[in-house]
User: Which sequence fits this backbone?
């Protein structure tokens, strides 16, 4: 799970990109933060799927 600080930074950069645009350093930071977010999301989602138990009515 990403910290709230990192999530806030992702949102800030996304908003800034839409309004003003980002410089090269900010674009690089945004890509790194997005990759970290996706990695955390995928890990969490995989854990949820691993905990699913299929029960058949027989």
Assistant:
């Amino acid at each position: 799970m990403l910290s709230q600080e990192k999530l806030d930074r992702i949102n800030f950069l996304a908003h800034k990109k839409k309004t003003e645009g980002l410089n090269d350093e900010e674009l690089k930071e945004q890509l790194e933060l997005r990759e970290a977010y996706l990695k955390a999301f995928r890990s969490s989602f995989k854990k949820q799927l691993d905990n699913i138990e299929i029960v058949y009515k027989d």
Residues 4-50 form a domain with the Helix Hairpins fold (CATH 1.10.287.540). The chain has one domain: 4-50.
